[in-house]
Inverse folding.
């Protein structure tokens, strides 16, 4: 598909940090346990992010595992005069919808449910397709990756809401908001998905058996 | 660990690219798998934890799910949350709701038979207010554990909180009553006007003829309930009018409104060992009947009254010599074909024990005589001595009657069958009836008097009298007048004759003087004769003897005194 030459073909390697272009000819005495470093800034050199698949998979699986308790456990307790209410993400969304704030419900639902799920699906798709060296819709996959990177920050919305409410709503008996363990898992999920998307090397999309033509 | 083995740097001309340095890798990339492993571990630990924490799930049925909220409503024991309502759904026949409750692991012992569940809601009753905190916090499910260890997962929820918690110190007792009165679950039980317990439950006896009440007396006051204790219904106000005036007796305002029970030991010597659990007592209507000595076995008697029993009502007292020994239980009309009369058959229940010592003595006497000391035998003997039943008027104003068993003197003998069941007590007409009979007799006799002919005769007599009077007025009275005039004339003449200066008066005076003198000489003569009786024969002796001087002396003074006694004759 792509006829552009790769750095490897040209015998070059770029430093990720200081962007120094370095000759890919490795010294003779390099063994398996050794690695190459940038002669200028000293950072590690690699053609692709090292172990990108493995890392991404591992982080994504971890994020997914944590996403389960994040949804099952309540994330927030709102206590008012006559009522103590523990809400999970879903029940909070339902409550918002039922109590007449469908716009808010949609925002929270998007940020807390749609985005993480989309991230899992996108990363999964990217990983699988890249690992199999598929040439299918490469530019779209590249766009998808950029989208995943971009929306990554916004899925922390729920965590921010809980943190803000906890800090703001403190009226003793009358009204009180407390974070519950669910929010920790949720935050971890978001962080791990972000890490996963970061450890995925988008150049892998373009590597494939049929890449050279 | 960056012991770099620098490769040779190319010249600065730039035609040659820089070469990388080689160094040791710092860590193994596969360590990244620790992250998901850790996540899995955390997740697993959560699962295990929740599995370990999960207690039994039970189903409680309630009449209504009012105030219950799935996922929220807690289950509390002693105000500690031991579970939460999971799910609420209707039963298959829609008659009640089924509440699924997830108990905590530590609350496993609450999923046993005998555990009671109820919904704590704010309740405001006459006896007090409870569950007021649930106004703010919302309803919760209260729990009380039972004895059993047998596991159970289906429970029937109580609609009202149980009056007594399991294991509370105290004892429960059973009371039997004719009706419930104004008592209810939770009604207080008083001892010396201090609340010491409450009514726990009540149910109709299986025969439907009474009510059994379960009460619970809290410790340590339960020791005051002895085997001799009497219970009575302390509801309402007791107003009694006695010789000392009006007396109002109540336990407490709450019991006046909501009802209550009271108990006390009877006065006098009694068994004061604390009663064991579940002892059965009779619940009396009021304190007086509770404190009365025990009635003993009731006996049914029957009386046949030949006259009207107007004013006799069921529950009217039956008195023996003024002592209440029972009450009337039935009044029925009968028809006597032979006499063609309508006798009234009155049934009554009597308690011979109320006769006290008298009954004991009679019984002992009967035993000593070798007779059957049965009430029927005793009654037979009493009837022989004139015992009769009488419907007497207890209140002249209202005409209330009571049945008096009394000894009636000179009453005709009657047949008494001591083996009849029930006993038939012979009767005599009541005092009032007797009076009525006698009055009727008198009226009868009065009726027989021929008032008509008497009237006629009287009329004739009066007519005759009238004629006579006319005659008297016309003829007799004028003549009477003339006669009176004559009488008046005669009286005038008499007056003249009797006046002081009339000759008749003068003559009468001298005559009386003569008569006096004559009497004096007669006395001298008799004096002399009494001294000398022989003078009658021999004649008067010469006055020589000095013995005669006293006689002369005696005779002299009267002569000298005569003129004054005689008055002063002109």
């Amino acid at each position: 598909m792509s006829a552009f030459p790769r750095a490897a073909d040209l015998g070059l390697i770029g430093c990720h940090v200081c962007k120094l272009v370095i000759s890919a000819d490795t010294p003779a005495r390099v063994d398996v346990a050794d690695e190459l470093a940038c002669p200028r800034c000293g950072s590690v050199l690699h053609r692709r992010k090292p172990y990108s698949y493995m890392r991404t998979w591992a982080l994504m699986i971890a994020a997914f595992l944590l996403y389960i308790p994040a949804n099952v456990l309540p994330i927030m307790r709102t206590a008012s005069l006559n009522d103590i209410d523990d809400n999970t993400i879903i029940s909070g969304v339902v409550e918002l919808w039922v109590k007449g704030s469908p716009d808010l419900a949609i925002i929270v639902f998007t940020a807390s449910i749609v985005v993480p799920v989309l991230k899992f699906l996108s990363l999964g798709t990217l990983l699988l397709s890249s690992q199999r060296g598929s040439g299918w819709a490469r530019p779209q996959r590249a766009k998808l990756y950029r989208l995943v990177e971009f929306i990554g920050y916004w899925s922390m919305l729920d965590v921010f809401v809980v943190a803000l409410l906890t800090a703001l709503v403190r009226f003793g008996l009358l009204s009180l908001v407390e974070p519950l363990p669910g929010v920790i898992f949720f935050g971890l999920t978001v962080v791990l998905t972000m890490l996963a998307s970061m450890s995925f090397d988008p150049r892998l999309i373009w590597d494939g058996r049929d890449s050279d033509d | 660990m960056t012991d770099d083995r620098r490769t040779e740097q190319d010249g600065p001309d730039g035609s040659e690219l820089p070469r990388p340095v080689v160094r040791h890798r710092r860590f193994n990339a596969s360590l990244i798998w620790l992250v998901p492993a850790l996540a899995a571990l955390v997740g697993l630990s959560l699962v295990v934890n929740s599995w370990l924490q999960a207690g039994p799930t039970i189903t409680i049925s309630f009449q209504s799910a009012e105030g219950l909220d799935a996922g929220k409503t807690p289950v509390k024991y002693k105000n500690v949350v031991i579970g939460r309502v999971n799910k609420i759904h209707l039963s298959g026949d829609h008659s009640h709701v089924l509440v699924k409750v997830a108990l905590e692991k530590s609350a496993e012992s609450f999923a046993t038979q005998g555990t009671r569940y109820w919904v704590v809601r704010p309740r405001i009753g006459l006896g007090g207010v409870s569950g007021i905190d649930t106004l703010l916090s919302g309803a919760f499910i209260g729990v009380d554990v039972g004895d059993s260890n047998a596991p159970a997962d289906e429970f029937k929820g109580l609609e009202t909180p149980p009056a007594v918690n399991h294991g509370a110190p105290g004892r429960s007792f059973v009371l039997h009553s004719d009706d419930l009165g104004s008592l209810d679950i939770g009604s207080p039980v008083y001892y010396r006007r201090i609340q010491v317990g409450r009514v726990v439950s009540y149910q109709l006896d299986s025969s439907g003829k009474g009510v059994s009440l379960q009460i619970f007396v809290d410790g340590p006051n339960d020791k005051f309930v002895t085997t001799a204790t009497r219970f009575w219904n302390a509801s309402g106000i007791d107003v009694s009018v006695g010789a000392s005036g009006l007396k109002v007796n109540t336990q407490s305002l709450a019991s006046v409104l909501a009802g209550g029970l009271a108990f006390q030991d009877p006065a006098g010597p009694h068994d004061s060992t604390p009663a064991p659990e579940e002892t059965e007592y009779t619940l009396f209507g009021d304190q007086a009947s509770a404190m009365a000595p025990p009635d003993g076995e009731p006996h049914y008697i029957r009386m046949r009254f030949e006259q009207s029993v107007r004013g006799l009502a069921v529950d009217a007292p039956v008195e023996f010599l003024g002592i209440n020994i029972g009450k009337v239980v039935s009044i029925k009309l009968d028809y006597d074909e032979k006499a063609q009369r309508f006798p009234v058959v009155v049934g009554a229940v009597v308690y011979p024990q109320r006769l006290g010592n008298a009954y004991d003595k009679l019984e002992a006497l009967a035993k000593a005589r070798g007779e059957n000391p049965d009430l029927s035998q005793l009654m037979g003997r009493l009837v022989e001595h004139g015992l009769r039943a009488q419907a007497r008027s207890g209140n002249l104003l209202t005409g209330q009657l009571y049945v008096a068993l009394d000894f009636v003197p000179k009453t005709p003998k009657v047949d008494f069958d001591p083996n009849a069941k029930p006993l038939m007590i012979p009767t005599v007409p009541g005092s009032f009836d007797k009076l009525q009979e006698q009055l009727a007799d008198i009226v009868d006799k009065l009726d027989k008097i021929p008032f008509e002919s008497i009237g006629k005769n009287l009329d004739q007599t009066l007519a005759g009298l009238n004629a006579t009077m006319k005659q008297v007025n016309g003829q007799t009275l004028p003549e009477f007048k003339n006669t009176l005039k004559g009488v008046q004339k005669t009286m005038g003449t008499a007056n003249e004759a009797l006046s002081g200066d009339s000759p008749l008066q003068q003559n009468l005076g001298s005559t009386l003087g003569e008569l006096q003198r004559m009497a004096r000489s007669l006395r001298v003569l008799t004096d002399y004769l009494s001294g000398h009786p022989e003078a009658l024969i021999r004649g008067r002796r010469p006055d020589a003897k000095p013995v005669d001087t006293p006689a002369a002396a005696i005779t002299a003074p009267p002569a000298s005194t005569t003129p004054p006694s005689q008055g002063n004759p002109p």
In short: The beta strands of chain A are 12-14, 21-23, 34-37, 44-45, 76-80, 83-87, 175-179.
